[in-house]
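Hey, I'm writing a tutorial for new members on how sequence and structure tokens pair up, and I'd like a real worked example in the thread rather than a made-up one. If someone can provide the structure for the chain below, I'll link this post from the tutorial.
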Amino acid sequence: MNYLGHKSVKNTMLYIQLEQAIYKEASDQFTCRIVSNAEDAKGLVETGFEYVCTTPQDAMLFRKRK
């Protein structure tokens, strides 16, 4: 509740219920991709991949639920 900035636990519970409904059958397994330029990164985002981070070697990491 505090982490999300909600004043009421009811709002937090709503988000928990939404998350459970959306990801009920989703696994914690991901397809991962590594790219090193903006054009490839754009292509991944357009196909549903989510940006995770950039490594010290300037490689960008992306993931998408299986």
